[in-house]
From TrEMBL:
Keyword Cytoplasm annotated: yes
Organism: Thiopseudomonas alkaliphila
Gene3D superfamilies: Glutaredoxin (3.40.30.10)
Record's function text: Has a glutathione-disulfide oxidoreductase activity in the presence of NADPH and glutathione reductase. Reduces low molecular weight disulfides and proteins.
Protein name in the entry: Glutaredoxin
Family per record: Belongs to the glutaredoxin family.
Domain Glutaredoxin, chain residue ranges per copy: 4-63
Keyword Disulfide bond: yes
Length: 84
């Protein structure tokens, strides 16, 4: 299974939805909370080219945000990406 990284915020309902989908699939993920980890929002913006949370990577692939993650699920592509 690919490593999953999610930049999130405690105050973000989209972050909660994204993490909920990953948890339902039994996916372990590394979470970086941009509210608590100094400099992480800037790091995320530089890597993703976006400033909104969540920002999600599966392996080396930048998935994007919550809607992007759910779109992969709807298209039947998320499981294959998670498997690598």
């Amino acid at each position: 299974m690919q490593q999953v990284l999610i930049y999130s915020s405690d105050f973000c309902p989209f972050c909660r939805r994204a993490k909920q989908l990953l948890e339902q699939k039994g996916v372990l993920y590394e979470e970086i909370n941009v509210d608590k980890v100094r400099g992480s929002r800037k790091e995320m913006a530089e890597k993703a080219g976006r400033t909104s949370v969540p920002q999600i990577w599966i392996g080396e692939t930048h998935v994007g945000g919550c809607d992007d993650l759910y779109a992969l699920q709807q298209a039947g592509k998320l499981d294959a990406l998670l498997q690598g």
